[in-house]
Amino acid sequence: MAALGHGSPIEMVQEGISQRQAELQRVADVLAREAQRFKRISGWVRVLLIVCGALAASQSVFEQAFTGYKEYAFLAFAFLGVSITMLAGLEAAFKFEGKSAELAMLAAGCHSTVRKTDAMWYREVGLETDEKEKIAGAMELIELQDSRLSEIQEKAAASGLNIALEVRREYKWQGPRNDLPYAKAEPDNGPYAA
Question: Rounded to whole angstroms, how far apart are CA atoms 103 and 36?
Answer without folding.
Answer: 9
